[in-house]
Amino acid sequence: MRLTFQILFFYFFSVGVFSQKSIDNTLEKFNRNTVAYISVDELKSLKNVVLLDTRKKEEYEVSHIESAVWVGHKKFKIEQIQNKFQDKDTPIIVYCSIGVRSENVGEKLLKAGYSNVRNLYGGIFEWKNKGNPVFDNKNNQTEKVHAFSKHWGKLLTNAEKIYSTKSKNLEENFR
After folding, report:
1. Is residue 144 annotated as a catalytic residue, yes or no?
2. Does 7 score more than 60 pLDDT?
3. Alpha-carbon gap, residue 63 to 139, rounded angstroms
């Protein structure tokens, strides 16, 4: 029994450490650090923040962080935020799968004059890897997270990975 516990402990410890290292490496490779990061733990301690999900609609519908507003990435329109949040000091947290697409949206918000924008380090993958809840399009808690692709899905270690939920024709409607 003790050996089983040790094996399980090593597995969960190593999965967490190795996935974090891979997220670190990926963000170093793809991001320019133009939007300040916020950690999962820091985000959990905040109240009254606006969470913006910058993934594809299909990804958001599989699961998202509670109270997050979908804004997309490719078709993101700054006007939709300016109309909803006129106070440029509003605390805004952007996120995507790990923090690459969300940095691009964060840059647009900063350029538009929003002064309190942060990018969730590790995105929804890190949020879920740390055991936090996510919700589907009916606001039911779920263990599913859209993993974007098999390559990126390697960084998601604590969720049921979903790769596609719609036919290609329907997916085109969400781009």
Report:
1. no
2. no
3. 9
Nearest Cα neighbor of 56 from 93, 96, 26, 104 is 96
- Of the residues 65, 92, 93, 96, which is catalytic? 96
- Measured at the CA of 57, the angle between CA 26 and CA 106, to 5 degrees, comes to 50
Per-residue tokens: 161: 């990975």
3-state SS, residue 28: helix
Quick one: which of 151, 166, 167, 157 has its CA closest to 59?
166
Region 46-51: what's the mean pLDDT? 95
pTM value? 0.82
Q: CB 142: neighbour CB atoms within 10 A?
A: 18
DSSP 8-class letter at 64: B
Q: Percentage of residues in the chain with pLDDT exceeding 90?
A: 77
Neighbours of 59 (CB within 10 A): 25
Nearest to 124 by CA among 149, 104, 94: 94
